[in-house]
Design goal:
heterotetramer; A: alpha/beta; Barwin-like endoglucanases; 6-stranded mixed barrel; 5-stranded parallel beta sheet; 25 helices; B: 193 residues; Alpha-Beta Plaits; globular
Chain lengths: 707, 193, 289, 196
């Protein structure tokens, strides 16, 4: 999120696409509904499904799954055509506008209507609302990202905000509500196969920087790896690691995967789950570390699995980063119950036995505070330098001193600071950056320009040259340079450079323009591409997907070869998945809570009355859903108007059944969750994003039959 | 004297069931006992609304009128409570209640109904305040602690209001008036510029 | 009561007005008034129509029962002292009147019915007993006795029903109130069972089965609340008749007609009694001999 | 009485001047917090409470308990929780009315946060699957077996034969250690839920 949950209170228009915040982030609705009521902000909800959030919308837009980019580009085009775009903002702070505009021009209301199913009139109305009520916020979640063009979708959202000039202002911004409680924190420290903590990447410089922080020899780290190539090669991802075992698609790694460790991670959230099951049966070792027996435990039917009971997060402590980039200290409430051990203890035992404890804990005497300090020393790129354990604790201890509207403390020990020190928090005295890219405040007081990450000038394919730095006169107050400037050399590895920059009132990473044209992406400007499994076979030719990618996170990933025109004949219905308010993620925790299990006891599939009647399925009856990949699940029909006549919706929290068969007997005795059901991901389809490899669970196809 | 009341703002309620679980977890209710529940109408259609319902602590409460043993009584602040030591589980109160608030756990003999259970406005019951017995039979006594009922306090969107009827009515009226600004929506554009 | 309803509904009324302000808002095609109506229909169900009468009738039932019981006791006392009991000494010829099976099911039904009436009244007048676990225990007794009774009632019904169909002279029997309001017994128009017995039979067995059904549904407590309300009313109204007739039956058989108790134990009735009290049946058996 | 008051007011609503002044609106909104919090004083003024108080009862149901501030573990909104702990037992989840983001609010998952340590379904000790059945083992045995197997696999197939799935549900510090562990192990095969 560029802004914060509370900042939505200042929005004058709320545009939510691919987000069901009413179920996934109910407390965020507090602020959204406030803006709706007090500012009279129109709440526009774009979703293939009439969600609980849509029930609160002033304008509900039903969109065909997988066509978000077309709709967003259509909006952008309509706004530009009508001259509603923020010309001054674009002149001073945006790059590649002309190139983007040319691409967007294709998406006329007529074209958009054909692709997305959204009428011309509604598109015009939404565009008018967005243009009239500024600043408006754009909010999205997995409905935007879980597509094979997920990265294009997200960029289209950002471009929409740039065109409207809604970036860097209170009440505006692009706000992505993140899922898990600490997914922002875990992402910031990059528990990801393509980067070292704080998005440093895997290049040699990154490794050297972190080796310095860790206090270990770079050569030693290098020697731990198979060879130098694998030091820099992106690893398998959560979405496709099982291909490293079953190798249905060709892998580009010297060895298959033989062991997997699930450390606080559910497996039933991964698409094509029936293939993952095959992998579990083939592995030499599966280690599950979790407070509850996850679905994974029940899915393993071989003697290759261990379960280690870790504590819940209330029995240990540490910082958590909310979606708004705020750090809060999650204090320990009680001692570990039963024989469970904290994750830190388990880590220590592992490291001890692996034989590098002295190196691993070189700077860490006290867990977790010393770890926080180590992160602060290393994570300069996103400015975690100011996140010292004392400061984070101070904020949590004094959360009552922060204003609800601005999140700034009024008096008290944290006077003037923003709640949770939203990163970048450049130094130990920096108050945090509540709104990213806000040039109305000095950098030392939480202001920030756009980052100058891609040089100072670029020549577009048509020969046009553009200065990538912000226009003259555009800079934060107090900046030594009144206008754009490049990044400070060495700021990513040296805190002194950052301090120097701040002293001069400037951002360490420069002051540039936001790009509408990303030349390092497969689609420099987002364009619509039909889902791999598209129900509109007639559009595949016009909007084809990418060519196959042979080495995509170590595995051959099919795009063009997977997109078959005839598929929709056999699999006529669209399959989407989503959240329920009662459950979370794989549901290991919530399905073991008797009250939540009572409220949402079983798996169901939402199905439109017309589809139900066509197939002879009555409300409450079981029926089979089958995926093109051979997965099938038997679920209860919930006949509802929430989905349209082409769509089936599945909540993805359930586990404990597998293709019609109960796995209750596979759980440890006495630990069978209160609620069991078929994992929706057995039937989610093949398809992965071209850049991030996020699974495309929001645009699959399926067929159904009566059970 | 303050008159305790609940009010659920239908425009705000998002059916997150926070109130339901807050109540169950706070009072350690058995599964199947719903002191509070959330009802959705027009599900999946434009006009979908939800509302959280519990005992409304009626003035001149019908349940008190029909109770054959006089187990139900009303405090001075309007909170309607049941004495589980006296209640015989006959179920008349359930039939008399407009909101379906009274709940009956399965008793021991033949699975007949046990003593009635319902929302206490987090005011415990007739057992000694903060005693183990009170906690077991009625749950927490937050009113005696000077605390708000759990459901309203934990309402995710502040849809559910609880407290003195006059005060919450004021709050709600102001909200309505403010939403009424929806009427003037766009006026600032039309007339000021 | 009207005030009570208004009071308890004020919350909804208020919401309605609140929604009223929303009407002008160009938000959706569904009118807020419709939403309000739908909520009312869903949450309150039939309460606005029948709630008040239900509350009124349920809270007054206790009084009806009290009137019936006290009234009957008064009548019994008056009757006993004014007219005295009938005495049939069982010294003369005996007539085989009740078979073994009939007596068996009668006593089965009688004992369980006694428990039912006693525990039922205890639940109704629970306040006297202080409520709580004691009455809750008696509710379990009521429940258990009901199942026992239901079985016996079926057989009792089957074994006696052929003699229990109403006949024209029953009306006459009622007109002279069975001839009980005289000191000297004179023949009354009655067959094997007189009109009073027939009435008791029908209310006791067929009515008893209705009581069982309604009671069972109330025990289950899963029916729609509107239906439950009707069931409770039926249970209580019919219960009123059952309790009344039960008490009359008890008075007649134990106190007012000496020997009646014995005949149900032994199965035989005195010829004199049969001749006087059941002349039509007497004629019939005389013809047979 | 209160009911009537509510009932008689609506007429005024319509007549109230409509305002778009955000300052005024905000002040009004803050009263909502006061509504729930404001009850405090009102409840205490109740005669019944006063009467019971006269009898010298404990002031709190959990004497000697302390309140610990912590954060809900369910989604990234970051709602605050007041955990009331008595003698090392989490006895009650309190309303964090003054938390700047959630202001006491919770969805059903957060309202039942205490269940994370109360649930009977929590795992109690390390388990190993043997002959198709789960067998209780000691921590020591679990660590020894797992680590020696992992090292064996590393030896035989190389460090990339192990895939680590980290977590978005642990603290930032723990997540960082997970990433660091993979680096020290010698692989980039580490990922977590943010990917999907």
């Amino acid at each position: 999120m560029t802004n914060s949950m509370n900042d939505i209170r200042h929005s004058r228009c709320i545009f939510m696409i691919g987000s069901n915040a009413a179920e996934a982030h109910p407390v965020a609705l507090q602020h959204i509904l406030y803006a709706k009521e007090v500012n009279g902000a129109p709440l526009i909800v774009v979703d293939p499904r009439f969600t609980k959030l849509a029930a609160k919308a002033t304008e509900y837009v039903r969109i065909r799954p997988g066509t978000d980019t077309a709709f967003l580009m259509g909006l952008i085009n309509y706004i530009i055509e009508n001259d509603w775009h923020d010309k001054e903002f674009i002149r001073t702070r945006v790059a590649g506008f002309e190139e983007m505009r040319k691409v967007a021009a294709h998406y006329t209301p007529e074209v958009v209507e054909d692709i997305t199913g959204i009428s011309k009139e509604q598109l015009a109305r939404v565009a008018k609302l967005l243009a009239t009520y500024r600043p408006g916020t754009v909010i999205w979640c997995m409905g935007i990202t879980q597509h094979h063009i997920g990265s294009s979708n997200t960029r289209a959202c950002c471009i929409l905000q740039l065109v409207l000039g809604n970036m860097g202002v209170s009440g505006g911004g692009t706000n992505i509500f993140r899922g898990h409680d600490n997914v922002q924190g875990a992402t910031d420290v990059c528990v990801l196969s393509h980067s070292l903590p704080a998005y440093y990447g895997l290049k040699e410089g990154a490794w050297k920087h972190w080796c310095k922080v860790w206090g270990v020899d770079f050569e030693w780290i290098k020697s731990r790896f198979h060879n130098k190539e694998y030091l820099h090669k992106k690893g398998f991802t959560l979405a496709r690691w099982y291909e490293g075992v079953i190798q249905e698609d060709k892998i580009t790694q010297y060895t298959p995967i033989k062991a997997v460790v699930f450390w606080g991670c559910a497996s039933n959230s991964q698409s094509q789950y029936h293939k993952l099951k095959r992998a579990l049966d083939k592995l030499d070792l599966v280690v599950i570390i979790d407070p509850f027996p996850t679905t994974t435990a029940a899915m393993c039917e071989k003697d290759n699995v261990y379960i280690l009971p870790s504590t819940s997060q209330y029995e240990t402590e540490g910082s958590v980063t909310s979606s708004s980039r705020q750090a809060q200290w999650r204090y320990k409430v009680v001692d570990p119950i039963y024989e469970s051990k904290t994750d830190y203890e388990i880590m220590e035992e592992f490291v001890k036995r692996f034989g590098f404890a002295d190196k691993f804990y070189k700077n860490i005497k006290k867990v977790p505070e010393d770890v926080t300090r180590e992160i602060a020393r290393g994570a300069l790129t996103i400015g975690l330098c100011g996140w010292l354990p004392e400061r984070i604790k101070k904020h949590t201890d004094n959360w009552h001193t922060f204003d609800v509207d601005t999140l700034q403390a009024k008096g008290g020990p944290c006077d003037g600071e923003y709640y949770g020190l939203p990163w970048p928090c450049w130094t130990e005295t920096h108050p945090g950056t509540p709104i990213l890219y806000d040039i109305s405040k000095p950098v030392t007081k939480g202001g920030l320009p756009f980052r100058a990450r891609f040089g100072t000038e670029y020549t577009y394919p048509d020969g046009r040259k553009e200065n990538l730095l912000a226009a003259p006169g555009v800079a934060n107050p107090g900046s030594e340079v009144k206008g754009g400037y490049p990044e400070f050399p060495g700021w990513k590895t040296d805190i002194n450079v950052i301090k120097e920059a701040l002293k001069r009132g400037m951002a360490p990473f420069g002051n540039a323009r936001a790009r509408c044209y990303c030349w390092n992406f497969p689609d420099p400007v987002p364009v619509h591409r039909e889902p791999l499994h598209s129900p509109r076979s007639d559009l595949i030719k016009k909007y084809p997907t990418y060519p196959d990618k042979p080495d995509h996170y170590r595995v051959y990933t099919r795009f063009a070869s997977e997109q078959k025109v005839a598929l929709s004949k056999e699999f006529p219905l669209i399959l989407i998945t989503g959240r329920m308010v009662e459950h979370m993620g794989g549901g290991a925790e919530t399905r073991s809570n008797k009250y939540l299990a009572e409220l949402a006891p079983e798996m169901y599939a939402e199905i439109n009355i017309k589809v139900a009647n066509d197939y002879g399925i009555r409300d409450g009856e079981y029926f089979w859903i089958e995926s093109p990949e051979g997965g099938k699940i038997k679920v209860k029909a919930k006949v509802t108007d929430r989905v349209d006549e082409k769509t089936i919706f599945l909540p993805f929290h359930f586990g404990g059944f597998f293709m019609g068969k109960s796995l209750a007997h596979n759980y440890p005795e006495g630990h069978v969750p209160y609620a069991l059901g078929e994992p929706a991901n057995i039937v989610t389809n093949y398809g992965y994003d071209i850049i991030t490899q996020i699974q495309a669970t929001k645009e699959g196809l399926c067929r159904i039959r009566k059970a | 004297m303050a008159r305790m009341k609940f009010l659920c703002d239908i425009e705000r309620c998002i059916a997150c069931n926070g109130c339901v679980v807050a109540c169950k977890e706070g009072h350690q209710l058995p599964v199947g006992i719903n002191r509070r529940r959330v009802v959705i109408i027009n599900e999946g259609q434009p006009g979908e609304k939800s509302i959280s319902i519990a005992c409304m602590h009626c003035s001149d409460a019908p349940c008190i009128a029909v109770c054959p043993v006089g187990a139900i009584y009303q405090r001075e602040d309007g909170i309607v409570l049941v004495n589980k030591d006296i209640c015989i589980g006959c179920g008349y109160c359930f039939m008399a209640c407009p909101f379906g608030a009274p709940q009956f756990p399965r008793g021991n003999a033949f699975g007949a109904r046990g003593a009635m259970d319902k929302c206490t406005f987090c005011a415990g019951g007739p057992a000694p305040t903060f005693s183990e017995k009170e906690r077991r039979l009625y749950g927490q006594n937050r009113i005696a602690e000077g605390k708000v009922p759990l459901c309203a306090g934990m309402c995710s969107t502040k849809a559910l209001l609880a407290g003195d009827g006059a005060v919450i009515a004021d709050i709600f009226r102001e909200r309505v008036a403010r939403r009424g600004s929806g009427i003037a929506w766009g006026w600032s554009k039309a007339y000021k510029e | 009561m009207k005030r009570a309803i208004l009071g308890s509904l004020s919350f909804f009324a208020f919401s309605a007005v609140a929604l009223g302000a929303e009407i002008l808002r160009p938000s959706g095609p569904i009118s807020p008034v419709a939403v309000f109506r739908k909520l009312n229909a869903l949450l309150l169900d039939a309460w606005p129509d029948e709630g008040a009468t239900f509350i009124k009738s349920v809270s007054s039932f206790k009084d009806y029962y009290l009137y019936i019981i006290l009234g009957l006791f008064g009548i019994f006392l008056l009757h006993y002292f004014i007219f005295g009991p009938r005495r049939f000494l069982h010294r003369g010829e005996k007539v085989a009147y009740y078979g073994f099976f009939t007596r068996f099911v009668h006593w089965g039904a009688a004992v369980s019915m006694t428990f039912l009436v006693a525990s039922g009244l205890a639940v109704l007048f629970a306040k006297v007993f202080g409520g709580g676990p004691l009455v809750m225990g008696l509710r379990s007794v009521h429940l258990a006795a009901a199942f026992v009774f239901a079985i016996f009632a079926v057989f009792l019904f089957l074994s006696l029903v052929k003699d229990m169909f109403p006949a024209p002279y029953d009306l006459k029997w009622f007109l002279i109130l069975g001839g009980y309001l005289t000191r000297k017994p004179r023949p009354v128009p009655a067959g094997k069972f007189n009109a009073g017995q027939k009435m008791w039979f029908w209310v006791g067995t067929a009515g008893g089965l209705v009581m069982f059904y309604t009671g069972y549904k109330l025990y289950q407590f899963t029916a729609p609340v509107s239906y439950l309300r009707e069931l409770l009313k039926i249970h209580l109204y019919l219960g009123l008749a059952v309790v009344g007739l039960f008490l009359i039956h008890l008075y007649m058989s134990v106190i007012a007609v000496k020997g009646a108790l014995q005949s149900m134990l032994t199965g035989f009735k005195d010829v004199e009694e049969v001749a006087k009290m059941h002349p039509k049946f007497y004629e019939k058996i005389r013809k047979e001999f | 009485m209160g009911a009537k008051k509510v009932f008689s007011n609506p007429a005024k609503i319509a007549g109230k001047p409509i305002t778009l002044n955000p300052k005024l609106a905000r002040r009004a909104f803050l009263k909502i917090a006061a509504a729930t919090a404001g009850l405090t004083g009102l409840a205490l003024s109740s005669k019944i409470v006063r009467r019971t108080e006269a009898k010298e009862r404990p002031k709190t149901p959990y004497p000697g308990s302390k309140i610990i501030r912590t954060i809900c573990t369910h989604c990234a909104v970051g709602c605050g929780i007041y955990a009331e702990v008595q003698n090392g037992v989490w006895v009650r989840q309190e309303i964090a009315q003054d938390h700047p983001i959630s202001r006491g609010g919770h969805c059903c998952k957060g309202a039942g946060a205490i269940d994370m340590v109360r649930s009977e379904k929590r795992l109690k000790y390390p388990l190993k699957r043997e002959g198709g059945r789960w067998k209780k083992i000691s921590w020591e045995q679990a660590f020894d077996e797992i680590c020696s197997k992992l090292l064996e696999i590393r030896e035989k197939y190389g460090p990339d034969a192990v895939h680590w799935n980290g977590s978005a549900k642990v603290s930032t510090e723990m997540a960082y250690l997970q990433r660091k562990l993979a680096a020290f192990w010698g692989t980039n095969n580490i990922d977590h839920q943010a990917r999907i």
